[in-house]
Specification:
It is a single chain. With about 150 residues, this protein is mainly α. It has six helices and no strands. It has helices at about 1-35, 40-50, 50-65, 70-90, 100-105, 105-140. Helix 1 (about 1-35) packs antiparallel against helix 2, helix 1 packs antiparallel against helix 6 (about 105-140) and helix 3 runs antiparallel to helix 4 (about 70-90). The longest helix is centred in the C-terminal third of the chain and has 33 residues, at about 105-140. It is elongated. The mean pLDDT is about 85.
């Protein structure tokens, strides 16, 4: 019971950090798109947060696996694997996951914006899902099986 509460709390906090980080990345990419920011500054600001983002996402998925929340963990794993795949696919010689010479390309910029939108939707849904599970665990009920009898 206490392990479940601490895992839901940890996932809630990590999910909120990842949500704010994704919103920040979306703002930076939008600034690049509207030419408020040059591509070198944009890439350096985004590359600063690549490793912490991967670390938080991996620890988030690991916490769900440790807590044996299989359904939620399997929903989380594709997003974690996508981040790890993109980091592993990074070409040698690039300055990071976001390269200043390629990020200003319209197709690459749109792809990064769509990826941020997908991650933003995932983190927003997971934030409220973890809050629901945490409150359900704190109140003593099983969050996956709601009560069958209605008091009124």
């Amino acid at each position: 019971m206490e392990l479940d509460i601490s895992i839901w709390m940890f996932c809630l906090v990590i999910s909120s950090f990842l949500l704010f980080l994704t919103v920040y990345m979306m703002i930076i990419l939008s600034d690049l798109e509207s030419d408020y920011l040059n591509s070198r500054d944009c890439a350096s600001r985004l590359n600063l947060w690549v490793f912490p983002r991967i670390l938080m996402q991996v620890s988030h998925s690991a916490a769900l696996l440790i807590g044996q929340n299989w359904t939620v963990a399997f929903l989380s794993l594709p997003f974690t694997c996508l981040l790890l795949y993109r980091r592993g696919k990074q070409k040698p010689g690039h300055s990071g996951l976001f390269d200043p010479t390629e990020i200003h390309n319209r197709l690459v910029l749109r792809q990064n914006l769509m990826e941020c939108l997908g991650y933003m939707a995932y983190h927003l849904v997971s934030f409220f899902l973890y809050m629901y599970f945490m409150v359900g665990t704190l109140t003593g009920g099983d969050p996956t099986n709601p009560a069958k009898d209605v008091p009124w």
